Amino acid sequence: MKIIIGIDVGGSTTKICGFRGPELLEPLFVKAADPVASVYGGFGKFTSQNGIALTDIERVMITGVGSAYISSDIYGLKTEHVSEFVSTGRGGLYLTGLPEAVIVSMGTGTALVHASGDKIEYLGGTGVGGGTLIGLAKKMLGVQNVEIISALAAEGDLERVDLRIGDITDRELSPTLVMETTAANFGKVSDIATNGDLALGILNLVFETIAMVSIFAARSHGLRDVILTGNLSTIPQAGPLFDKTGGMFGFNFRMPVHAQYATVIGAALTYFDTNGKERKE
Fold first, then answer.
1. What is the pTM of this model?
2. What is the dihedral of CA 59, 64, 69, 71, to 10 degrees?
3. Do residues 153 and 215 share a domain?
4. Are 85 and 64 in contact (CB under 8 A)?
5. pLDDT per position as a tens digit, 161-207
């Protein structure tokens, strides 16, 4: 059975996946400063790990900001460029099995799409994302590695960083404004705040901002389901922080398996859409 390859070329990483019929082959990513080098290096690594010969491949579907650097067929294989927003929508619905949702792509910045069946609409986004996280951590903590930031945050306490509703009133103002609700990110930074406290405060600022923008988008479409995708979904604190905000407002933040690969998976799936084949068993 012929294989469909999906490639998502970012600024510093390239993600690759494949479908053998309805079977998703385990995705992978590679890092490289040069997007062309990362595409060909990642392609070789993926095909080698899965024992795939060039003759086994039917089509290569490519997306991402760095895909503009790929102007010809990869290794002589028919290569098609796919909209990144369409890919994100397709991938999000596929990974969750939902018929409709707002899908959030959390990368350097954050993009939101509304997906309903085969209809994908780009809603906009925010400049708050992974770039914000790394930039603030570099300046405030002298750290740029996301794993180290997360490890520091594991020892942090938001009580020494954020101003909360409970700090300014002795009663809940509404069902969604409980005492633990953030009134101001970094609005109560203590003189004894540790690097762990600051790291957790940065994560909370980024994730709360994305959560609220996503809630506004979902609410405008009469939806309660928001699918989180992209590299930030791999940070351990993401799930609990999104669940906290979602719980306050009655929204479901879903982070499926392979969430960080949703866009590349969606890119591969667009082949089946346009060729009228079954996407998933």
1. 0.93
2. 30
3. yes
4. no
5. 999 999 999 877 777 778 889 999 999 999 999 999 999 999 999 99
CATH number for the domain harbouring residue 92 = 3.30.420.40
Whether 236 and 116 map to the same domain: the answer is yes
Token pair belonging to 62: 């490519």
Distance, in Å, from the CA atom of 27 to the CA atom of 39, rounded to the nearest integer, reads: 14
What is the number of H-type helices and E-type strands within the chain?
8, 12
Q: For position 277, what pLDDT does the model report? A: 55
Specify the length of the chain in residues: 281
User: Residue 204: CB partners within 8 Å, gap ≥ 6?
Assistant: 158, 161, 162, 182, 185, 241
What is the rounded distance in angstroms from the CA atom of residue 207 to the CA atom of residue 106?
Answer: 10
Other CB atoms within a 10 A radius of the CB of residue 224 amount to: 15
| pLDDT tens digits for range 58-69 | 999 999 999 999
Whether 231 and 215 map to the same domain: the answer is yes
CA dihedral 90, 39, 42, 126 (to 10 degrees): -50
Nearest to 280 by CA among 21, 1, 6: 21
Q: Give the three-class secondary structure for 144.
A: coil
Burial 39-77 (b: 16+ CB within 10 A, else e): bbbbbeebbeeeebeeeebebbbbbbebbeebeeebeee
Identify the residue with better confidence: 61 or 1. 61
User: Same domain for 121 and 73?
Assistant: no
Distance CA 164, CA 136 (A): 21
Q: Is 152 in contact with 144 (CB distance < 8 Å)?
A: no
